[in-house]
Amino acid sequence: MTQDLCDLTATEARRLIGTKEISPVELLESCIARIEAVDGAVNCMVTRAFDRAREEAKVAERMVLDGDDLGLLHGLPIGIKDLEATEGVRTTYGSLIYKDNVPAADQGSVAAVRAEGAIVVGKTNTPEFGAGANTKNRVFGATGNPFAPVKTCAGSSGGSAVALATGMVPIASGSDYGGSLRTPAGFCGVVGFRPSPGTVPAEAKASALMPWSQLGPMARTVADAALLLQAQMDDDRRDPFSGLVDPRLFGSVDGLDLGSIRAAITPDLGCCPVDDGIRATFTARTDAFRGVFAEAQDRAPDFGDIHRVFEIFRGVTFVALHHERLKNHKDLLGPNVIDNTTRGLDVTAADVGWGLVEQGKLMRRFIDMFDEVDVMICPAASVSPFPHEQLYVDEINGEKMPTYMRWLAISYVPTMALACSCVIPCGVDHRGMPFGLQVMAPGGKDALVLAVAHALEGYFAGRPDFARPVPDLKKLQS
């Protein structure tokens, strides 16, 4: 093979492990070598579990040689976002409060992938408690974009996105509230999938009745993300949104004919600020491929006062999660957690009541539009990657953003509609940085979204200007 083993797709690496053409030990060592060569430039694999991973890889190799039954992810190294508890491996949540925390047990999402044979190689960086779309914290510092390390990789699953883009691991975990895995996927040229609520259970989530934050897979291809999702899926009654799901429904994303799909295409979802350069890139790309669909409509649903809805529930969520920390450990908290929690304390019961009703209305209008289309496509992010010294985007096209989250509206709007959404790479933007598309549909349509995203990915692969960009590893190593 001319490529390093760590650059193989997860599906191909798993196939080669199963046929005994490569060893889990060889694959892990290739990933470790890439981490050691490149991570100094980007700072994404912030806690490493190499010794334990090596022992697990030896066991995985022996299982292959002995003809044992092998799991979906057998022998595949995986990066776990530092918001997920890992037994025996430091889990900081990006917070000084937990900088020395070593959990006694894996949370369910980690236990599930381990049970399918994945080998945890390390923890990937995240902003404090996942707050903010810039992967930067006071425990580990900032994670740089692999295409320009002085720029942000976005967040909060930025460490996972960078680890994937640079070939450190073939699969990685993420989580998403207002775009926390989708925006990093867009900024780093990889795939991120936000599933429908409960598809990947979060049994220990503090705010169990809030459906906004969801766990999901990240990878370099849609097929790899679907493979990881199949392992992550479960039914756990401790997550009230978890249901009886059949992982076999997601076993293959092949075979969909884009000529049978009706697509709604929108540069801004009808309500989101989008940089003029991103809008122009999106229009040029979609104009070039809209003809592959049975029908391409330029439209978006009426999302009403969705920005107020988002701010209300963002505030309520932060109060639920961090009010006690704000009272007892304010000196150890960063500005994003403090700001969101403080603003959340001003939300009234009347605000929450209005928000619940308005969210129900806008979600139903969103769903109703899909009587006439199958999927909706928009940009993955509203801006090009910016310097990570800048915590957030405060201005787009000369217009001041009213909140530090508004630049993320292109991803938090689908969250409020309870959509499932897949981000796929689509070349580079007007600044030469990775550009991504978001393919979405109402909750429950996960398999369709993944199939459409996979078919588009295949179409893009034959066009150099649409293909997934790859960072300059030699430049990063130097």
What would you say this structure looks like, in words?
The chain has 478 residues and is α+β, with helices and mostly antiparallel strands. It has a single domain (5-301, 361-477), classed as Alpha-Beta Complex (Amidase signature (AS) enzymes). The protein has helices at 10-18, 24-42, 50-66, 108-115, 158-165, 182-188, 222-232, 276-289, 306-328, 335-344, 349-369, 409-416, 446-461, 473-477; strands at 45-48, 77-81, 119-124, 136-137, 141-142, 144-145, 148-152, 171-176, 191-194, 214-219, 262-265, 295-298, 375-379, 395-396, 399-400, 419-428, 434-442. The strands form 4 sheets. An 11-stranded mixed beta sheet has the order 1-3-2-8-10-9-16-17-13-11-12, sandwiched between helices. A hairpin with a 3-residue loop joins strand 4 and strand 5. Helix 5 packs parallel to helix 6 (182-188) and helix 9 (306-328) packs across helix 10. The longest helix has 23 residues, at 306-328. The chain starts with 9 loop residues before the first helix and ends with a helix. The model has no long low-confidence stretch (mean pLDDT 96).
